Amino acid sequence: MPELMIYQSKGEGELFVEQFLQQLTPIASDEVTTTVTIDANQTFQEMDGFGASFTDSSAYLINQVLDNEQRTDLMSKLFDPEDGIGLSVLRNPMGASDYARDLYSYDDLPEHETDMELTQFTISHDEEDIIPLLQKALELNPEIKLMASPWSAPGWMKTSGSMIAGELKKEYYQAYADYFVRYIQAYASHGLVTHAVTPQNEPLFEPMHYPSMLMLAEPQSDFIRNYLKPNFVRNNIDTKILCYDHNWDRPDYPLTVLEGAQEEVDGVAWHWYGGNATAQTEVHQVFSNKEVHFTEGSGGEWIPPFEQAFSNVIRTGIDILRNYSKSFVLWNMALDEHNGPTVPGFGQSTCRGIVQINQQTKELTYTLDYYALAHFSKFIRPKAVRIDSTSSQDLIRSVAFRNTDQSIAIVLFNDAEKAENVAVNLQGTDMLTFRLESKSALSIKINNNISDISVS
């Protein structure tokens, strides 16, 4: 057996975060095994990467509550590909979301005033915490791609007159398209390139206790086709436009948008709060030239930690990747001991951050989401291409990629209620056999030299 590097999370709540060398116990040839076969000749999507969001709340906690030493160590553990888990996609709110300390857009006005020329536009709010953290993240990992999504247009553009609920008024479609251009240009002035935007976060959800904006499929198609994309072209902006940005249970929405604005849309963004990841493939089969992205999924108190919650992130992450997604992005990078801060009037939050930062004690805790993301992001690097992986037993879940250095990364999860013996075969050759505990994740990296295998 080869000597293996272990970096493993187990479903019983034990987190092995130290890397060490260990011999795996050989499995007798007559023992029943589940075979996972990797075929590098069958290829699928190219990865952008894995990540989360520097919401206003997350950025405040990391930049203002942590001390310099804590912040430096955390940023390294999040973004450094060698010393950390190498997160490479950041999807941030354009203005306030539910996880912000107050309501704000980039062009707030007194009631009944308008600003068609956006003379009051400013990203000064983001310059305090969010932009410095984005810049530091890019220093640690230059391969990071930035995405942006608004929870609401400025209130004066909407039927509600507020960032809470309402729809975008038709007469402000051009001003809103200009708003996106100003945001992209302002961020670019700080050395931050916006890789992709969506016109609206969760456009079919209109909560009354945090920023939101209803945007049905036909209006979104109209806005993208006749205002947003032409504005990008006029201003020489090559930022990608992703439609939808909502749950798997309404694939009809992106299908409608793509039918009406196919040439102007680069892909579809998905969330996991309803439906099944197979919706990604359903739309991909109709519009195979459009990118698939998973842009938001939060863990929280609705699934008990550790095993159930950890298993859910790993299991669902594998499904997301097997259904053509180029990204796997969770929600808040950091929340406090009360799962906040949240906007005034939000009530009790049940979401979980990638890390928890206690505002009273300043204690920093890495949550199960950090370790779940690590199983993907540590070895599946940007521009990796998904390759075929099949398992002889459905409860041994797998996904595999070939990195640009030609190394092969495989993520496995035992969803069975008992330990299973597993054999991983690459191109028909027995590479490795091992015992995989119930509800445990294992990530394997096979380098150019086939005998050089590391397991995470």
UniProtKB/TrEMBL annotation:
InterPro entries registered for this protein in UniProt: GH, GH30_C, Glyco_hydro_30, Glyco_hydro_30_TIM-barrel, Glyco_hydro_b
GO BP terms, alphabetized: glucosylceramide catabolic process
GO molecular function: glucosylceramidase activity
Alphabetically ordered keywords of this record: Glycosidase, Hydrolase, Signal
GO cellular component, one term: membrane
Limits of the Glycosyl hydrolase family 30 TIM-barrel domain: 48-380
Limits of the Glycosyl hydrolase family 30 beta sandwich domain: 384-441
First and last residue of the signal peptide: none
Family in the record: Belongs to the glycosyl hydrolase 30 family.
UniProt-recorded name of the protein: Glycosyl hydrolase
Species of provenance: Paenibacillus glacialis
